[in-house]
Amino acid sequence: MIRVLYIAEIVGKAGISCCKKALNLAKERFNADFVIACADGATNGNGLGRNHAAYLHKLGIDALTTGECCFYKKDLTANIERIPYVLRPENLVSGAPGSGTKVFRNKIGVAVLLGQSHFNKLHGENPWERFDALAARLKAQTPFVIIEFHAEATAEKQTLFALAAGKVSAVIGSHTRIQTSDERIIGGTAVISCAGRTGSINSVGGCDTASRIKEYLSGIPDWTRPAWDNCELQGVSLELNEDGSAASIERFRIPVQGIVPETNS
Predict the structure, then answer these.
(1) I need a surface site. Which of 32, 123, 152, 263 has the fewest CB within 10 A?
(2) Long-range contacts for 129-135 (Cβ within 8 Å, ≥24 apart)?
(3) pLDDT score of 263
(4) pLDDT score for 43
(5) pLDDT reported for residue 221
(6) With a cut of 70, which residues of the chain have pLDDT below it?
(7) From residue 101, how far is each of 46, 80, 104, 135, 163 by CA, in Å?
(8) Residue 191: its pLDDT value, please?
């Protein structure tokens, strides 16, 4: 039995602080052998900086995934080829730097696919056309294959779940930052539409609610103000059989106390 811990999208310094305070607790609670975390919003709520990537890896996260914000931070983009524990979406154009798949420790295969709906700054190629070849390539190396599907539309996620059933160990939805309650196993494949977010829960996607209300009233975008209220570490725990099939999927929410707001987030 292999136990994989997936940490839902880390949003800002509040999310990073949650990992610092509660990651080891989650690893112990679920007896995790391997940890994956979505870090697409770890740096200021949009993107992942090089220093934050290194810090989260040092905390004990084996694989860091990104989504449509993968190239928002120049210091990561310039070095992503030399940071093997950071994955960007696999279904980007061939000239994109970095990698979207990796087999970690010669045992756990991880890949990221990007959805096609509502992403205006980064466009992924058709994830459904890519899926079978991607799954087969990873399955040839290991029975344990985890796919993160970073997508906005639930319909996209449900469709990929149906395609993936019985072909990989799990497909975990990310990006919407709201934990859903539809976790289940389909044909041996564990799925969930969104694992949630790690950071402030009394917020709008980890951002200050007042600033989000002001944007809707004024039309002026503002994602710069972080939220710190009611912090949680969220995600899912997976138990995988020796043949790679999913034995269980359990979502979790761990309240994290003592997170002190920082003014320069």
Answers:
(1) 263
(2) 130/90, 130/91, 131/160, 131/163, 131/164, 131/167, 132/163, 132/167, 134/90, 134/101, 135/164, 135/167, 135/168
(3) 60
(4) 95
(5) 78
(6) 223-224, 263-265
(7) 22, 13, 10, 10, 19
(8) 98
pLDDT of residue 265: 42
Out of 3.40.50.720, 2.60.40.290, 3.60.21.10, 1.20.950.20, the CATH code matching 2-255 is 3.60.21.10
Residue ranges of the domains in the chain?
A: 2-255
Q: How far apart are CA 49 and CA 87, in angstroms?
A: 13
